[in-house]
Amino acid sequence: MSSILSRLRDELSFIRGNLLVLIVSYMMFRFSGGLVGSFYSLYVRELGATPFVLGLIGSLGSAILAFVRIPGAYIADRYGRKNIIVVFTYGAALSFLIYSLAPDWRFIVVATFMSNLCNVYLPALEALEADSIPLERRGMGYASTQVLPHITVIVAPLVSGYFVETMGLVPGMRVTYIVALVGGLLAAVTRTFFLRETLETSERVRQGDLREVFTESFHSISEVWRVMPRNVKYFTVAMLILSFQGPFFGMFHALYANDVVGVKRFQWSFMSTVNMLIGLVLGIPVGRLIDAIGRKRSMLLRFLFSTPVVVLMVFSRGFLQHLVVIILFAVSGTFFPAFRALQADMIPREARGRVLGVIGTLRILATVPSAALGGLLYQTHPALPFALAIVLQLISVSIIYFKVQEPSVQEV
């Protein structure tokens, strides 16, 4: 046992400094997200939203997020990472209070606006994370940022499931959002006192610069796309296709499980916990596998699990069948760090915030129409969003297989 612990300690010895602080704050903030995420769609529907309105709210959130990401990326590359991360982590945490107090779905729109506006800090967070992971450990590094926070998140769906089961859906979710608020504020305090800046700059954000930053940053989308290597462009297109089908699962999977499969509410929270547990158990070994066999092979393995399981999901009925679906989805999710590692391999440090901002913005823009489309398709027939997702995944895996190549020299 001691030898196993010693080996694990050696494997994770690179987790220190900013990377350690980020992982600890992720534990807190993702715990909050895990609390509210399982029943979000059911909660908003209970507050009066139809599936199409639910999709429109998702589209609104994506549009706001796309609007703020590029300015956020420019601020990260021009003025530094830490300050923007700290300020807007507090704002994102406080949005949980609006979700908790919402008397109907219209207030969810206000909360969505606020939470996504505060996500202006995400490019800085991604850039600081990329700055803090050693080149030779990127597979393990990104796996660690995805897996280790699950230590606390893993119980979150059961906690929210308990509140919902004992208090009812709406009262239980109101309490859950208050608990999430506390977790978000703790993450903000941790980042305030322990994060260190990774970009040396003497510039400070000035109000007069903000208009210039917005104008310059949105013009940069076409400029950055033009200078992107062909390999990065193909990779980005494949990611855009995956992003387009993302809201189908993020917003309507819970509804499908409840309405069609027949999964009860506490059963759904149990499935969410199983999903996170598998991610925790397999995440580090898969991270090592990503470093060992390469990013592209790892991405293809991800599709080998994820695409067929969508078919199983559509035809699953009852708790046990859908539990198998959740398990297979969880296995495929452990390979996602390969996408982020390959992205970091291809993008130089000095342009990382800006390029990641452009790629992230394009991915978010892809979800703007798809969230509303998913709601419309769900109202027409609940299986339609997932049938379309199968087609989109096949297109994406074809692009990665035939067009995307791993770089011979990785960026530091």
Task: Describe the model.
With 412 residues, the protein is mostly helical. The protein has a single domain (14-198, 209-403), classed as MFS general substrate transporter like domains (Growth Hormone, Chain: A). The chain contains 19 helices and no strands. The protein has helices spanning 2-11, 17-37, 40-46, 51-79, 82-101, 105-118, 122-132, 138-147, 150-153, 156-167, 169-194, 207-227, 230-261, 265-293, 295-315, 319-333, 337-346, 352-380, 384-403. The longest helix is centred in the middle third of the chain and has 32 residues, at 230-261. The radius of gyration is 20 Å and the shape is globular. The model has no long low-confidence stretch (mean pLDDT 85).
What coarse outline follows from CA principal-axis ratios?
A: globular
In sequence order, what are the helices and strands, one letter per element?
Answer: HHHHHHHHHHHHHHHHHHH
How many structural units, i.e. domains? 1
CATH uppermost class: Mainly Alpha
Topology:
Layout: H1 2-11, H2 17-37, H3 40-46, H4 51-79, H5 82-101, H6 105-118, H7 122-132, H8 138-147, H9 150-153, H10 156-167, H11 169-194, H12 207-227, H13 230-261, H14 265-293, H15 295-315, H16 319-333, H17 337-346, H18 352-380, H19 384-403
